[in-house]
Each structure stands twice: as C-alpha cells, then as structure tokens.
Design brief:
By secondary structure, this protein is of the alpha/beta class. It contains seven helices and twelve strands.
Length: 285
C-alpha cells in the first residue's frame, strides 16, 4: 500500500511445486519404471524380458496408486495455510512506528484450488491459469466452485446453467464454462489485471516454488522495479525466489533461497513472531 511508506506490500507469485523426479518410461504407457526392473540378462530371452516388463508395469501401477492422491482429497500445505494466515492475521509484534502489512496479494499459476481451500478471500487471489473446481458464467462471470473436478478444459461450456448470478441471485440465464486454460487461451483479464496492479504496487515480490519459465506470469516478479517509484515512497526491494531449482530470473533477484517452501515458511513464520500453535488456531478458524 503506497499510502503508507512503512508498509511492505508483498505479492506472492508461484506454484508451490512438488519435487520433480526423473525416471525411465515405457513407451506411451506413462508409468514410472524402476531402473532395477529393466535390468536383465539378454541371454534369458525375449520371454523373460516381457515378463519383467509386465512385472515392472504392475509394480509401477501399485507405486503410482500409493503415491498420488486425487485433487479432490488434496489438502493445502503448510505454505498455503501460512500465506493465508499472513493476509488474514498480520504480525502483531511489529515495533516500528507504523504497523506493516506484510502480505497483500497472492498470484498463482496452479489449477489445484488449494489456495481457495484455505478460505483465502477471492479478492486477495489472482488465478491465472484456471481452477479445476471452478466454472464461470458466460454472461455475468459469477464463479461456481464445485467439490468435484469439472472434467473440462479450454473454456468450454459444461452443460450447466448459472444458478448464482443475476438480480435476484439465480435469475441469470447464462451458461457455465470451465476455467482451465488451454495453450492458445488468453489469461483471464480480471485476474491478470489485478496481478499486474498488485505486483507493480508491491515493494517486494516473493516467488515460491516456481521455475519461473511460463510467461507472462514469470515476468511479474520484475514489476516492483519496472514501474516508476513514487517520490514519497521508499526504494523498492525487487523480488526474492524460494525454489530448489535454478530459474531464469535468479540473477536479478535480491535473494535466492534453495530450500523447500514449507521449510522456508516455517522459518519465516517464526521470525515474524508467530507462536508454534498458529496453525492449530488457523485450522480452528
């Protein structure tokens, strides 16, 4: 908020990625095949190799079933919860003359709806690539959030009608579309405009768990220093990156932290003075 020179207006850009793994794949099947399962003696013949491959596929399916859960049952991580808590419950231990608001807005490229599951106000979130749980009306743009996946992509009509929009609510005759972008789709105008506005106003942008390789979203991190700084404002800080892998924007960052985002957020919440039970309080809320 540029009306208060002592505020740190921070926006978050990022994905909160899971750790990447590299493994061999069998043709177009797409399952991850353990290397040890493919190691065999060529002299044993084609029949044994086929048997080993079948066992590898079976084992891979079992591992996949155990390792991955559905989007519907996925829960927000510590970092998701912490970011929402920072917005809804700013730090109280600030000794500066004017209280700082540390976090103002979150920008996400993820489509998993996990930020919304923390009860983060929609006005504090820019969803750039859509949400697998959200449909929007083609007339009034009212969002309809479902407990299940929409099962559609490319801003296509889903066959359902708007039941929330209009005056009185529910009177809008519009048709619902999914919100998931395909490669040729434009970014949602409202969310993108708000993301640009918030990042340009911010003193600091922090990029959590993102490779910063998808444009134009990745370029948002440079907005704090790309725009003219008001005469009554302190010098802006630029951007920081928390990510295990290198990114194309590392060189221009004020700080790069090679760590898991949950570890970084745990440290940060402690430094900001939050008690260890803040998460239990958050869950109770």
């Amino acid at each position: 908020n540029n009306n208060n020179n002592n505020n740190i207006n921070m926006s978050i850009v990022g994905g909160l990625d899971v750790e990447n793994e590299t493994n061999e794949k069998l043709g177009d099947i797409g399952y991850q095949i353990p290397r040890r399962s493919l190691a065999g003696n060529e002299s044993n013949g084609r029949k044994r190799k086929q048997s080993e491959l079948q066992e590898a596929i079976k084992e891979s399916k079992q591992q996949t079933t155990k390792k991955f859960i559905s989007f519907e049952t996925a829960l927000p991580t510590y970092t998701h919860r912490a970011l929402t808590h920072l917005i809804l419950h700013p730090p109280k231990n600030n000794n500066s003359k004017n209280k700082r608001t540390y976090l103002h807005h979150i920008v996400t490229q993820n489509v998993d709806g996990l930020h919304q599951k923390t009860n983060l106000p929609r006005t504090k979130l820019s969803v750039l690539h859509g949400d697998i749980f959200t449909e929007t009306c083609d007339l009034c743009s009212t969002e309809h959030v479902r407990p299940h996946e929409i099962q559609s992509i490319g801003l296509r009509h889903t066959g359902r009608r708007c039941t929330l929009g209009g005056t009185p609510p529910g009177s809008c005759p519009g048709k619902l579309k999914d919100t998931l972008l395909d490669w040729e789709d434009d970014l949602p105008r409202k969310d993108w405009t708000e993301a640009e506005t918030q990042c340009s106003k911010a003193d600091l942008v922090v990029c959590f768990g993102t490779s910063l390789r998808i444009e134009p979203a990745a370029g948002l991190c440079e907005y704090p220093t790309a725009w003219p700084i008001p005469a009554d404002s302190e010098e802006k800080l630029g951007y920081a990156i928390v990510n295990l892998q290198k990114t194309p924007y590392d060189e221009g960052a004020q700080l790069v932290v090679r760590a898991r985002v949950d570890d970084a957020m745990t440290y940060l919440m402690g430094k900001l003075g939050y008690s260890r039970d803040w998460d239990a309080i958050f869950i109770d809320d």
